[in-house]
Design brief:
7-stranded mixed sheet; Rossmann fold; alpha/beta; 5-stranded mixed sheet; 12 strands; globular
C-alpha cells in the first residue's frame, strides 16, 4: 500500500503546488520519486518526529497542505503532544501518515509494533482516522484526505494476500462497504486484516454460517448507519483489527452497537492482546498467530458464541 500512496502523492503534488512532504529519516526505496520530482517541497527532517509535526504546523499556518510520514509507532507516539497542541488545537491542514501499522515491522521488535494508534488518534478533536485495506482503498483514501481540510491520520500496512476488485461505488469519508454477502452474521474489519475477515467467513460458510464482511477504511468518522443496519438485522456482529482490543475499531463499533440495544452476547471484538506486549521475535504472520488472530481460531470462537 505504501507504493500506492506514493504514486497518488506524485499526482497530488503535481496538481497542487501548496503540498509539502516531510519525512523523519524514513522512506528510502519508496519516497525517492517524490524527492526527485519535487526537491524543494520534500524535506527530510531527520530522526525528530516532534520537530517534523511542529514544522508542518508552521507551514500549514502559511497556507500549505503538509504530509508528515514515518513508521506508524514513531509518527504517532513520539510527536503526540505536537499533534494535539500544534495541529489539532488549531485544526490545521496536516496529514500524519503512519506506515507499517500493527505488526508490519514485526522483526524490529516492540518499538516498531503499532498497537494503539487508532485509540490515541481518534480521541483528538478535529482528527480523522483512516486505515485502508488494500491498493484501491489506499489510493482513494489518499485522494479523499488530500481534498479535505484539517488533520488526518492514515495508517498504511502491507497489502493483503487476497486480490480484491475495485468496488462498483465511490470511496467516501466515513463510509464502510460490503465485500461479501451473508445472511447470518456480520464481520467488520479495518486495514490490512480484511483478508483475515474473508478467510474467516469462508471457513464459517463451510460450517453452515453465512457471514457478511464489511470493510471499514474510516475509523473516524465511522459509518454508524451501516453498523446500526447490520446490528439490527443480523444474529451477531464481530470486529477484526490489527490493533489492541482497547480503543480501536472494536470499541468504536461497540459504542454504536450498545445504542441499538443489541445483547452483548451477540457482539465480540477480535484484536491484539489488551494488556501485554508481544516480545516474541518473528514475522508478522507469526506474531498474529501468537496474538490469536488466525481465521481458524476466530471462526471457532464465533461458532461457540453462536452456540453452533
Amino acid at each position: 500500500m505504501r507504493n500506492d500512496f506514493v504514486r497518488q502523492m506524485l499526482v497530488e503534488m503535481k496538481n497542487d503546488p501548496s503540498v509539502y512532504f516531510l519525512t523523519a529519516d524514513l522512506g528510502w526505496n519508496a519516497l525517492e520519486p517524490i524527492e526527485k520530482a519535487f526537491p524543494l517541497r520534500f524535506i527530510n527532517v531527520g530522526v525528530s518526529e516532534q520537530h517534523m509535526v511542529s514544522m508542518a504546523a508552521g507551514l500549514a499556518l502559511e497556507g500549505k497542505k503538509v504530509i508528515c510520514y514515518s513508521i506508524a509507532s514513531f509518527a504517532t507516539l513520539r510527536p503526540y503532544e505536537a499533534i494535539r497542541d500544534d495541529v489539532c488545537y488549531h485544526n490545521l491542514d496536516v496529514k500524519i501518515i503512519g506506515t507499517g501499522g500493527g505488526y508490519n515491522y514485526a522483526t524490529h521488535g516492540t518499538t516498531h509494533h503499532t498497537i494503539e494508534d487508532f485509540a490515541i488518534m481518534r480521541v483528538l478533536p478535529h482528527m480523522r482516522v483512516l486505515a485502508p485495506a488494500y491498493s484501491w482503498e489506499a489510493r482513494e483514501a489518499t485522494k479523499t484526505m488530500m481534498r479535505a481540510k484539517g488533520p488526518f491520520y492514515m495508517r498504511l500496512g502491507k497489502s493483503p494476500n487476497i486480490a480484491f476488485e475495485k468496488p462498483l461505488f465511490r470511496f467516501a469519508l466515513g463510509k464502510g462497504y460490503g465485500i461479501r454477502e451473508g445472511k447470518d452474521i456480520t464481520i467488520i474489519s479495518t486495514g490490512n486484516v480484511l483478508d483475515l475477515a474473508v478467510k474467516t467467513a469462508e471457513i464459517l460458510y463451510v460450517r453452515g454460517i453465512e457471514a457478511c464482511v464489511i470493510s471499514m477504511p474510516t475509523i473516524k468518522p465511522i459509518d454508524e448507519g451501516i453498523i446500526r443496519k447490520h446490528a439490527a438485522k443480523k444474529k451477531a456482529v464481530f470486529t477484526i483489527e490489527e490493533h489492541s482490543v482497547i480503543g480501536g475499531l472494536g470499541s468504536t463499533v461497540a459504542e454504536i452497537v450498545l445504542k441499538t440495544g443489541l445483547n452483548s452476547k451477540h457482539f465480540e471484538k477480535f484484536g491484539l492482546p489488551a494488556d501485554r506486549f508481544l516480545k516474541d521475535v518473528g514475522d508478522r504472520e507469526y506474531l498474529l498467530r501468537k496474538a490469536g488472530l488466525e481465521a481458524t481460531k476466530i471462526a471457532a470462537r464465533i461458532q461457540m458464541k453462536l452456540g453452533r
